[in-house]
Amino acid sequence: MTIRWPNLRDLSVGDVLVGIALLTLIATLAYPNLKARAFRGLLDGAVADVESLNAAAIRIHGVSGSWPAPTVTGAMPPEVAGAFPGDTALVRKGYALQWRRWEVVDQIVGPPEPRGPEDADAPPDSVGPRLLSVARPIGGIVVHSGRSELLAELLSRYGAEVSFVRDTMWTLVVDLSDGRTP
Amino acid sequence: MTSAHAEMQEARYRVTTDAGAAGRWKGTIASFIFLVALVVFIRPPGFLVPDAPATLTPDDELFGVRVTLLLQAEQIEAYRSREEQLPRSLAEVDARFPGVRFVRSSNRLYQLIAYTVEGEAIVYDSATPDPVFATIARDWVTTRDDF
User: Fold this and answer.
1) Which of B15, B18, B26, B31 to substitute to test the interface with A, most A CBs within 10 Å?
2) Which terminal Cβ of chain A has fewer Cβ within 10 Å, N or C?
3) The whole model's pTM is what?
4) Do A54 and A136 form a contact (C-beta atoms < 8 A)?
């Protein structure tokens, strides 16, 4: 059995209209799924980039003991360029990445105050330990995007304990001290 | 001759009528399909729509403002631990966060202010920080409570 395609010259205006209408309906039916698939691709790309940058920064911290230098939005920190072969910038369609570095101040127990010879026979004070404030660097990965649903998905994926959203930025805090890993 | 001519005219007339009726039907069908497509586009049925992506809630935005204030306060405290004094402005601090205002109320005290999207002012007061900041900081910063 052979299929005989109609000659286009035999088609009437009504046939063409029905054909166009059917194609429109098919496109309309497929649109929500295609849109969701495109967003899923965008999210997966952003997560992959965040993971690569995170892993590279942690590796560098492990080797050198310090975080990569902070950059402006979209700029590739030279130290992590190996994690993004072929890329010169961290700018993608729909978002851009930025590596940042901040400090937090820990309170640590310092050595006890030296006691003078006049205090030698006195009982030790009952005050608590002497605390010192010590600044410690932490890293941060920022995803800049005007698409709030992307920022919300990243927040949902990484949790609010180590990441947050402010304006058009989602930020992941990268901190390795005391096993605090993102 | 006259009869044949009349038959031919009749046949032509009949064909035109059939084609016109079919065309009208196809036009009606096409219009109906276009209408269905429009309805599906404006209000797609549930089975066609995949799970909607997450959306930011007012709580997410408030949390973001608080963490921003906390991190900015940490930058100021780091400056203070190095320089043994408060900065005169945020320009002296290495890392600044957009949308945060710094008010130095004395040599030892300061306030940081930022606004939510709804315009609500959130304040970090270095003298008596809201306990919620300590809760957030617990994940990152070692404090006396950790000992």
Assistant:
1) B26
2) N
3) 0.77
4) no
Residue type, A43: L
* Distance of alpha carbon B76 from alpha carbon B89, whole angstroms: 10
Give the integer Cα–Cα distance in Å for A12 and B15. Answer: 14
Residues 122-141 (A) with a CB less than 8 A from some CB of B: 129, 131, 133-135, 138
**Block residue for tokens 């709030």:** A148
User: How long is chain B?
Assistant: 147
How far apart CA A33 and CA B123 sit, in angstroms, is 43
Looking from the CA of A38 toward its CB, the CA atoms found within 13 Å total 8
* pLDDT per residue as tens digits for the range B97-109: 999 999 999 999 9
Q: How far apart are CA A46 and CA A97, in angstroms?
A: 9
Determine whether the interchain pair A135/B78 forms a contact, defined as Cβ–Cβ distance below 8 Å.
Answer: yes
